[in-house]
Amino acid sequence: MLRSEHIPRATIKRLALYVQVLETLKREGAEVISSELLAKACDVNPSQIRKDLAYFGGFGVRGVGYYVQELITSIKQSLGVDRIWRAALVGVGNLGKALLRHQEFRRRGFHIVGIFDCDPFKIGEEIGGIEVICSKRLPEKAGELGVEIGLITTPPERAQRAANYLIEAGIKGIVNFAPARIAAPEHVCVEYVDFFHHLYNVAFNITLGQSQR
Amino acid sequence: MLRSEHIPRATIKRLALYVQVLETLKREGAEVISSELLAKACDVNPSQIRKDLAYFGGFGVRGVGYYVQELITSIKQSLGVDRIWRAALVGVGNLGKALLRHQEFRRRGFHIVGIFDCDPFKIGEEIGGIEVICSKRLPEKAGELGVEIGLITTPPERAQRAANYLIEAGIKGIVNFAPARIAAPEHVCVEYVDFFHHLYNVAFNITLGQSQR
Lengths: 213, 213
Description:
homodimer; alpha/beta; Rossmann fold; 2 domains; three-stranded antiparallel β-sheet; 10 strands; globular
C-alpha cells in the first residue's frame, strides 16, 4: 500500500477534490478519463494533476488516461478513508437531523453511532434507532461507542462547549458545522463547514461582477 | 465607502473568515480586539492580518486594537454583503429543509424566497409559508421573485440539472451543497459546500497522527 506520509501536504489537499470529481464521473458512467478532461473538471492545470497522480502511478495509461474506479480506490486507501469511521453528532437541531438522514454519510463510510444534545426535552428521543444522550456524558460514552470523529451541529453559541466535551472524550478530529470558530489543542484536527463563507464569496463575486460592467 | 475593487483577491478570501471570527468574539461580548489575539483566533500571522485590515484602516487604534462591531460592518460593506440577498433553493430533501429552517441565513441577510423541486409529490407543498414550485419553472419564476443566488440541495445525480435551470434563469451565483461537481459558464460563480471534503481531511489527519506515533 502507498504510504501517505510520502505524499506532499499540498497534493493531499487536492486529493479530496479529485475523489469528488472522479465519483461524479463514475456516476455518469465514465470508466477511463484523460488527464486533460480530469484537470478541466477539477479546475486544476493538467501538469499539476499528472504530478499529483503520479503518486498513484499504476493507474495512468499513456494515451488513454486514468481508470476511474481504480484511481478512486487508490486515493481513498492512501488517505486512510477506505474504512468505516465512527462519528458522534452533537446538537440535534434541524441541521443535525438532516445530517443524520443524509444517505451519503454511510455510503462514504462515516457512520454516526452516537447522538448528543444538552436539551432535556431531546434527551431520550430516538432518531434513526439511536437514542439522544446528554452531551455531558460524551467523555464516558465515546470510548464505549468507539467514536473517532465529532460532528458539531449546535447553534453557534454552544459550539465551543460541544467541542470541549469531544476533546475531553479524546476525539482527535472534529467537523464543525456551527457558524462559529472553536478553540482546540494542537493534536485535535478541526475542519469548518462554513456555509456563510461560501455565501459571502458568491455575494461578493456578484457585486464585483456588477461593478465591473 | 471603501471600494472592493482595490482590495487584493488574496485578502478578500480571508475576509469572510475574519467576519466569522469577529462575530464569534462579538457574541462573547468583546468590543475591542488586539491584532495579536485576532490573528491567533483566525490562525493567520499578525503581520498578515494588520496588512489585510489596513484596507479598513479607520478601525485600528494603535495600542488598543480593532473595534469589533465597526470592523464587521466595514468588511461586510466592502464585500457587498451588507444587504438582503434573495435566494432560491433547489431540492427539498432533508438537507434542503434544514437550510430552510436555519435561523442564520435570514440573520445574515440571505432570504430564501423560492423553493423548487422536480418531485410531483413535493410540488405544491408549503414550507415556512413558501410553496414548492416545479424546477422547470425556475427560469420563469426567478425574475419574478428577484432571485440572485441559487442553493442546490438535490441528490448528487440531480445537481447538474438543477444548476442548468439556475443558469438558464440568469442566476450569477450558486452555492452547491450536493456532493457532486457541476459545470457552469465562466460568468457564474459556483461555490461548493463539501461535507465530505472536510470529513476526508479529518479522517486523513487522524490516520496520519496514528502512523506518526
